[in-house]
């Protein structure tokens, strides 16, 4: 029995593949390499001693997807494959809806036709928008996300809720807060494509001298130091939560399951706290300048992840400083690789 991991060479996907292999799952990756690179597969093999089966294609190609399901005995799927640039999604909304939702539906059709259950969906805390109260638990009211990217996550959740109910399937929706860091081996991490949008990759490149200065988007938020607050969760901790969520589905006695979990640390950190923690953890300077707020940003978001702890026996264990150390080791690896 195998687990299909779509987008399995991407940032969170590749870390999850490693954890799945560590838990003796056979893994099949489908990834179109649009936001990942083939060497990640070699690195997964180097870390685990096992090379997952890999198919390079776009999940919108139904006929190729059918062949994968014909060739393997698949018992579940973790679905990471999606475009994820918030800004880009606003100028290319149709591409985002098509890529993120059609590919999801194609996999679900195969599940329906072949009587397969156990589906895990990468969702995001973006489905809560700016919540009225902190911390955010799973009962916090959902708000329509501002970005098209965010909407593909909330539509994806709706599709899966209907799918679970209508076809009696076991489904888990995992709402990530802000994933950061890299594998302790420094062989996996977030691949920077172009100018990073996210905070930690930008901090990393600024410390490395690739970018001159970090722009801190706004210091007039109603927070302690005026900069916006997020819940930064270490990517390996996040990857482990996927294995726990999958095991729960596989071992469930129920035919129909709809699990929803917030995956965060429960602790909020401001932009300037992240900058300071990076400098301290790695003994490097991160020059920055204060700039106006970034459009569409919320003030504060951090999780109450008690439900995942209670039901999955999972909790984030890695500190911000530890996670940021792995980020820096990854940057050094990338630099060596490019030389
Ligand atoms: N930030 C900066 N400078 C930068 C980059 C970010 O100050 O160069 C700030 C942002 O303004 C924000 C914080 O750092 O306050 C975190 O920003 P990120 O872009 O790293 O993360 P976001 O919380 O904005 O984005 C996350 C996910 C998205 C998701 C979004 C929904 O990365 O996938 O939450 O709110 F869509």
UniProtKB/TrEMBL annotation:
Keyword Hydrolase belongs to the record: no
Q: What is its EC number?
A: 5.1.3.2
Catalysis performed (reactions): UDP-alpha-D-glucose = UDP-alpha-D-galactose
GO BP annotation list: galactose metabolic process
Q: What are the UniProt keywords, alphabetically? A: Carbohydrate metabolism, Isomerase, NAD
Query: Which Pfam families would you find in this protein's record?
Result: GDP_Man_Dehyd
Q: Which GO terms describe its cellular component?
A: cytosol
Residue ranges constituting the NAD(P)-binding domain according to the UniProt record: 4-326
Transmembrane found in the keyword field: no
One GO term in the molecular function aspect is: UDP-glucose 4-epimerase activity
Which Gene3D superfamilies did the record assign? NAD(P)-binding Rossmann-like Domain (3.40.50.720), UDP-galactose 4-epimerase, domain 1 (3.90.25.10)
- Which cofactor(s) are needed, names only? NAD(+)
Q: Which top-level group of life is the source organism from? A: Bacteria
Task: Please state the pathway this protein functions in, per its UniProt record.
Answer: Carbohydrate metabolism; galactose metabolism
Q: Where would one find the signal peptide in this protein?
A: none
Which principal EC class is assigned to this enzyme? isomerase
Q: Which InterPro entries match?
A: NAD(P)-bd_dom, NAD(P)-bd_dom_sf, UDP_G4E
Q: How does it assemble?
A: Homodimer.
Q: Which family does it belong to?
A: Belongs to the NAD(P)-dependent epimerase/dehydratase family.
The name on file for this protein is UDP-glucose 4-epimerase
Q: Which organism is it from?
A: Epilithonimonas hispanica
Name the gene.
galE
């Amino acid at each position: 029995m195998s687990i299909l991991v779509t987008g399995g060479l991407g940032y969170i996907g590749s870390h999850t593949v490693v954890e799945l292999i560590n838990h003796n799952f056979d893994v099949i990756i489908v990834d179109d390499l649009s936001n990942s690179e083939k060497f990640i597969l070699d690195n997964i093999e180097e870390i685990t001693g096992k090379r997952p089966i890999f198919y390079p294609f776009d999940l919108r190609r139904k006929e190729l997807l059918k062949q994968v399901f014909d060739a393997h005995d698949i018992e579940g799927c973790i679905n990471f494959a999606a475009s994820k640039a918030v800004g880009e999604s606003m100028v290319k909304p149709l591409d985002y809806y098509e890529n993120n939702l059609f590919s999801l539906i194609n996999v679900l059709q195969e599940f329906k036709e072949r009587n397969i259950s156990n589906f895990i969906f990468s969702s995001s805390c973006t489905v809560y928008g700016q919540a009225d109260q902190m911390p955010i638990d799973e009962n916090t009211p959902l708000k329509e996300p501002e970005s098209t990217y965010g909407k593909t996550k909330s539509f994806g959740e709706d599709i899966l809720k209907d799918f679970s109910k209508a076809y009696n399937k076991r489904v888990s929706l995992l709402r990530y807060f802000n994933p950061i860091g890299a594998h302790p081996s420094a062989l996996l991490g977030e691949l920077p494509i172009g100018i990073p949008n996210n905070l930690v990759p930008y901090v990393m490149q600024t410390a490395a001298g690739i970018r001159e200065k970090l722009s801190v988007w706004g210091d007039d938020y109603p927070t302690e130091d005026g900069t916006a607050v997020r819940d930064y969760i270490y990517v390996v901790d996040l990857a482990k939560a996927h294995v726990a969520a999958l095991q729960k589905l596989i071992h469930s006695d129920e035919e129909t399951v709809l699990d929803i979990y917030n995956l965060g640390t429960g602790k909020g950190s401001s932009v300037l706290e992240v900058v300071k923690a990076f400098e301290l953890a790695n003994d490097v300077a991160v020059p920055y300048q204060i700039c106006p707020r970034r459009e569409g940003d919320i003030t504060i978001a951090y999780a109450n992840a008690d439900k995942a702890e209670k039901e999955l026996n999972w909790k984030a264990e890695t500190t911000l400083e530890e996670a940021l150390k792995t980020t820096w080791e990854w940057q050094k690896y990338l630099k060596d690789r490019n030389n």
